[in-house]
Automatic annotation (TrEMBL):
Catalytic reaction equation(s): 2 Fe(II)-[cytochrome c] + H2O2 + 2 H(+) = 2 Fe(III)-[cytochrome c] + 2 H2O
UniProt organism field: Chlamydomonas eustigma
A Pfam entry, by short name: peroxidase
Protein name: Cytochrome c peroxidase, mitochondrial
PROSITE patterns per record: PEROXIDASE_1, PEROXIDASE_2, PEROXIDASE_4
Amino acid sequence: MALQIARLVLARCANQQVASSSALVNLEYAMLSRSVSTWGFRNLSSSKPSFCVAASSASPPPPPPNNKAVNTLRFILLGSVAVGGVFAYALFNSEMPQPAALATGQTTVKKDYGAVKKAIEDILDVEGYDDGSYGPLLVRLAWHASGTFDKADGTGGSNGATMRFEPECSWGSNAGLDKARSILEPIKAKFPWISYADLWTLSGVVAVEGMGGPTIPWRPGRVDKPSGVHCPAGGRLPDASKGAQHIREVFSRMGFNDQEMVALSGAHTLGRCHTDRSGYVNPWTNAPTTFSNLYFQDLLNKKWTPKKWDGPLQYEDNTKTLMMLPTDMELIKDKKFRKYVELYAKNEEQFFSDFASAFSRLLELGVQFPAATVAV
Ligand code: HEM
């Protein structure tokens, strides 16, 4: 429709000598390719989903042509496009801002977190990927997005979703999480009002619940940061080759105590290691898509010996199909940790309850929630 209007207007401007076919082509091109951002719209040329964005920005667009007639026409055309867009939105979207809301600048778009949760549930089961579920990968995304928090200065944490940007997206500890971020893109496109930070943490929550785990209290309110200059310092996520002291340093920096460290580590009942991501291999348990206390039972009841291979030190059971990381083994070597491993191996209910509170807190570290934000 906009192009039809353009042709009409150009025809009437024949006496201004702007309606030559080449002017028309130029005008159409200008409309479609470069002047959108000048009028306050998003630059369409950069709208492709970006899973890892460099910190530096693209070069600025060239200045608009110094042609009054073309500028006037562009104004008319873009105005038509905007009005047309609003009508199309009204026709096809029942959550259209109402006139009163438009007048006051407010929006009534209903933030239906239930619908987002449902959309996440729907993508969890995938035949052919690992053990048949993206659930464990999404739990790891939520944890790595949040586990950078430093309580000393309030930096890091899930707020900001800075893992979209360099350098954080390329940290070795985040290898493989590009996959997690990309599978959530269609959901972000369907519910553009949710921040990435809320979406990533909510997906971890939905994944735990969807795999049979406890209900995790979760509330929205995280705000995305615009660029990689907000990435936290590197080296904050745990190194699996290290000992108990390192585990305590990393988790107490976030504000967790020994019991919470053990409870959170129970997430390794899910998923597996990948040689092309961390260098380690195999799952921790025989039920890697079911949330349970099996990890603690296996830690205590199976015999773990160093795996003989060219890779990094890891432990294997007598079937050689299951694994433990050096940091997992610290949980039974260190007496203070071990007593909680024993507790959770015996009492799954206690594990579920302690995991739910610690995981919920992990996902909220450093987030300033708007007043009166409630769990959904
Ligand atoms: C000392 C602490 C921790 C260390 C050293 C550690 C290390 C690792 C490593 C090396 C992997 C394998 C990654 C891969 O190759 O794909 C992994 C996977 C995983 N981690 Fe941790 N982790 C720790 C704590 C946690 C915590 C606190 C959670 C969640 C609350 C968690 C959740 C997971 C999950 C669900 C996976 C499986 C991912 C998948 O299957 O793709 N981890 N972790």
